Amino acid sequence: MVKKKMPKKNFQDQKNKKNISESHEKITHEKISKKLICQISEQKNEPGWLTDFRLNSLDIFESLPMPKFGPNLEDLDTNDICFYLKPTDTQKKTWQDVPEKIKRTFDVIGVPHAEKEFLAGVGAQYDSEIIYKSLREKWVDQGVVFLDISDGLKSHKEIFKKYFGSVVPANDNKFAALNSAVFSGGSLIIVPKGVHIDMPLQAYFRVDASKFGQFERTLIIAEQDSSLHYVEGCSAPVYKSNSLHCAVVEVVALENAKMRYTTIQNWSENIYNLVTKRAVAHKNATVEWVDGNFGSKVTMKYPSIILKESGAKAQIISIAVAKKDQVIDSGAKCIHLAENTSSSILSKSISKDGGVSSFRGLIKVEAGIKNIKSKMQCNAIILDNISRSDAYPKIIVKSKDNVDIGHEASVSKLDSQQLFYLMSRGFSEQKARSMIVNGFIDVFVKELPMEYAVEINRLINADMEGKLD
Q: pLDDT digit string (tens) for 117-150?
């Protein structure tokens, strides 16, 4: 193998490294407290109402119990988590200005190439802060907002205050409260009325420290008659100690808006991935969620769509891959609050090498509304005798007026007849197994933005083919 020569470190490289080291010392080993909250808020120069919001959220976090369902969280000690790491002193305007260590990390997953070739805009978060953000001039000229959440607060105060915490309140659950208290990084996205972004916006999140918590907060507002596809990718290296990813995502799709949110998370096996993601669909709005869960030690994630007004539509497609020492507890929720609304949930899960996958689905129809159509489907494959798959579907219908609800579920092993057929055509057993699994997840894969997210497809192939071959 020929080793590539690394460029000599110049003064600026050493300065960047020094900045990273120094800023990592800031608020690094503090336990969560009101003092810590005030430090974070002061460092970000936030208004008083937001500091109060954070402090109130801390009270809620401390008063709420741990979740009484799902995976065992006993090994997660929030007192042993670093709540804030600032990787660089300033957000960079060009990729060349990003510190070399950070740049190399994102180069590997193709951030600069994807930005140049396929994306309307890109953001990259390293530990607690967005270190790079860009948006094509075409969309800047049309008034699209794609900012770090802190910059968004400063430049769009009224709309931020109107919608922040309106979809996911601090008291929603213990970890939503924790995020609300210490959130840092994430994005504010506003698509103005009538603007249709025909290229995806993408954000990458990287956890690069041990015993660390990443608490990004994302707020997306798609205004009337607008459209947007937002893609999120996540990764982390492997450490001996546990780390925490605890995000909150709030999406507001106003009248006739169309919003698609795609997530591909490939966390390392020491990450607790405990997130709250929810959208509200207004009159005739459409919200689509495409959710991929790979990696992590424990995942608890249930994207939710509230169909708030007449004509709203929701679709959630997800895949979960649970391997050795992994518990992937995922699912979806669709809440119908208005008549003439429709929703669908399709979940695929794969368990192998002792992994545990669980699906939790909810369809809820409130009283007094009519003309509701919804379907929930969960399909699982178990690849060996030591893995497990569970399903916990729930349907609550309070209305008796023209409600059409369907549910379907299946759990199976690899089809021996399919395996025999493929092997009889000359494929090895390992390749045949891979082909069957790829066919099983095809409904998910075809929803991905294949034209630009090559790294996502490589991830799926690595898990489905490389690991099986």
A: 444 555 555 545 554 556 677 878 889 898 888 8
Residue 8, in any domain of the structure:
no
CA distance 258 to 195: 11
Distances, alpha carbon 420 to alpha carbons 307, 380, 466, in Å: 46, 21, 21
Containing structural domain, residue 112: 21-301
Could you say which of 278, 301, 324 is where a domain stops? 301
271 lies in a domain?
yes
Instruction: Identify the CA nearest to 299 among candidates 245, 254, 353, 262.
Output: 245
Two structure tokens written together for 105: 């990390």
The total of structural domains in the chain comes to 2
Q: Which of 277, 401, 393 is nearest to 345 (CA)?
A: 393
Per-residue tokens: 111 = 């951030």
Q: Is residue 261 part of a domain?
A: yes
Residues 6+ apart with CB under 8 A from 63: none
Contact 146/138 with Cβ under 8 angstroms?
A: no
Q: Which residues contact 115 (CB under 8 A, 6 or more apart)?
A: 95, 121, 122, 134, 202
Chain centroid, CA 400 distance in Å: 35
Q: Which residues pair with 279 in a beta bridge?
A: 251, 305
For residue 316, tell me if it sits in a domain. Answer: no
What pLDDT score was predicted for residue 95?
A: 47
Q: Looking at the structure, do residues 244 and 98 belong to the same domain, yes or no?
A: yes
